[in-house]
Amino acid sequence: MDNAWQRSYTSACQKVNTLPIKKAHGALYPRTCSNNVPMTSPRPLNSVDAKANVNKNSEGSSIMASTIGVLKNAVGLVTGGASGLGRATVERFVREGAKVVLCDLPTSKGKDVADSLGDNCVFAPTDVTSENDVIQALSMAKDNFGRLDMAVNCAGIGIAFKTYNFNKKRPHELADFQRVLMVNAGGTFNVIRLAAGMMGENEPNADGQRGVVVNTASVAAYDGQIGQAAYSASKGAIVGMTLPIARDLASHGIRVVTIAPGLFDTPLLASLPEKVRKFLASTVPFPHRLAYPDEYSHLVQSIYENPMLNGEVIRLDGALRMMP
């Protein structure tokens, strides 16, 4: 480095209370001086420094602590709550001291599940594509628990048909495609749009937060397999709506986050032959197994408790990338 330039650079750094510190390969980087005392070499942060920083920022730390969410005493609504990922979420909510409206089809085991969990869980027979059903479920949250803090969308369906079956000369049924999109994407949006109004009535916390929405997409939104055109499209729609809805609701303090699960050990996969289950597990890089539903519900809890998670889609898949 040119000596004249280095002297000029050092002088400029001193004027703004910084000094250049020599790093690897001779590169110079500025370092801010502490309390206007010139520093001629880097000094590691020790326990005294750390304690001083904590004291200096005690007010900020207090504010931070007040905005970190706690699931205990929260009120949630979970669709698809009678089995699989939804049931794991409902059970975690109750276990953590929250209150839950379990939404699922009238033909599901939702009432039995809710009854087994005690007074902090009530069952609402719900078709997520029905405006009236969702309104009734929200009313149950209001009547039983006084408010709604969180909506978790787990309800969904899937089919497996190729776009065109050349052997049978038969195209994919448009009605089937529309049904999957309506339940998965339409149902998710239906719950969000109606739940948002109720959460918007809550008193805001220190951050201004009034509620949280968690949606369930799938890795199929990114790595759709053969025969998954409808399913992938529906989950891709959930991924696509996450950010704009988060932006729509931001002014009223409602966060929106989507989870894209990989292969989970749900009742659907449990019905498959063991050989098939082992093969599916072998495709997950690490952990080298199927995911547990409670790992999904744990992420739901983390999303609720972390106020900076918003407008994001989180893959929960053990680095899985689905094969065609």
TrEMBL record:
A GO biological process held by the record: fatty acid metabolic process
GO CC aspect terms: mitochondrion
Coiled-coil positions: none
Alphabetized Pfam families for the sequence: adh_short
UniProt-listed InterPro entries: NAD(P)-bd_dom_sf, Sc_DH/Rdtase_CS, SDR_fam
Entry EC no(s): 1.1.1.53, 1.1.1.62
Gene3D superfamilies recorded: NAD(P)-binding Rossmann-like Domain
GO molecular function terms attached to this record: (3S)-3-hydroxyacyl-CoA dehydrogenase (NAD+) activity; androstan-3-alpha,17-beta-diol dehydrogenase (NAD+) activity; estradiol 17-beta-dehydrogenase [NAD(P)+] activity
Key words of the record: Oxidoreductase
Chemical reaction(s) catalysed: 3beta,7beta-dihydroxy-5beta-cholan-24-oate + NAD(+) = 3beta-hydroxy-7-oxo-5beta-cholan-24-oate + NADH + H(+); cortisone + NAD(+) = 17alpha-hydroxypregn-4-en-3,11,20-trione-21-al + NADH + H(+); ursodeoxycholate + NAD(+) = 7-oxolithocholate + NADH + H(+); 5alpha-androstane-3alpha,17beta-diol + NAD(+) = 17beta-hydroxy-5alpha-androstan-3-one + NADH + H(+)
Source superkingdom: Eukaryota
Family per similarity comment: Belongs to the short-chain dehydrogenases/reductases (SDR) family.
Protein name: 3-hydroxyacyl-CoA dehydrogenase type-2
